[in-house]
Amino acid sequence: MTDTRTTAHHPLDKVVAITGAGSGIGRATALALAERGATVVLGARNADRVEQVAAGIRENGGRAVAVPTDVRRRADLVRLTDTAVSAFGRLDVLVNNAGIGPISPLEDLRVDEWDDMIDVNLRGVLHGIAAALPVFRRRRAGHLVTVASTAAYRTAPGQAVYAATKTAVRTVCEGLRQEVGDLRVTIVSPGFVHTDFVNAVADPDARAAMTARRDAIAMDPIAIADAIAYAIAQPDQIDVNEIVVRPTAQR
Ligand SMILES: NC(=O)c1ccc[n+]([C@@H]2O[C@H](COP(=O)([O-])OP(=O)(O)OC[C@H]3O[C@@H](n4cnc5c(N)ncnc54)[C@H](OP(=O)(O)O)[C@@H]3O)[C@@H](O)[C@H]2O)c1
């Protein structure tokens, strides 16, 4: 039985692909995993920004490569996972992190934003699963980590479509876990995290209110990066299925 828990003497020997790695939780996760010794393959749409994250890791002696990735495009996820295999010989973990939250009341009929959330938050995760599963199957090992949200457990006014996408993602991952006995499947659900996430909210008053609340109570993204690192670092026979991390002040 191999214990893959990481210590100063046992670095995290994993190749991890991360979507949405240019900022926020994805960036923090890339840095945290690289610091523990993992090799990271980083995807996001903004090529310069994600390359900066990878370059920073390499300058600190880590192994990282950036791959421009739009999770709405299935082929981009295939390229991300293929890059892990071609550059580093294997893919151990895919972190499905990319997500958007242009939240608004249903009555505002921001139908294009509803579509965007479905495309990125749900379809993007499905594209990640579709790209990673064949790679994992070949080695009979692999780990899918998906960043959902506390909205997957309880919605709130203005969050109906966002919460629906996150609830769906949680259901898909639980279904996947039940289907694939030999692969690990983890959902990490953050409460309010201090990132640029709120910038997508279109209504200026709602955005200002969310930004003020974020600045008052939100967690540093490191809290979520640490939770992801914990799940990944468990021994292969231990599958951490769900982690919920909220600011203490969040109801
Ligand atoms: N912040 C919170 O309070 C909070 C709470 C619960 C859950 N979450 C979840 O945490 C995850 C990360 O969010 P965050 O807070 O870190 O927000 P963020 O700072 O806005 O980061 C989102 C990342 O996703 C990327 N992204 C957006 N659309 C993409 C697409 N179509 N394809 C590939 N990458 C895309 C962005 O880069 P590009 O624009 O360059 O693509 C960015 O790197 C999301 O799934 C979100 O739902 C956040």
UniProtKB/TrEMBL annotation:
Gene3D superfamilies: NAD(P)-binding Rossmann-like Domain
Location of the Ketoreductase domain: 14-196
Molecular function GO terms recorded: oxidoreductase activity, acting on the CH-OH group of donors, NAD or NADP as acceptor
Alphabetically ordered keywords of this record: NADP, Oxidoreductase, Plasmid
InterPro entries (UniProt xref): KR_dom, NAD(P)-bd_dom_sf, Sc_DH/Rdtase_CS, SDR_fam
Entry's family note: Belongs to the short-chain dehydrogenases/reductases (SDR) family.
Name assigned to this protein: Oxidoreductase
Species whose genome carries this gene: Streptantibioticus cattleyicolor (strain ATCC 35852 / DSM 46488 / JCM 4925 / NBRC 14057 / NRRL 8057) (Streptomyces cattleya)
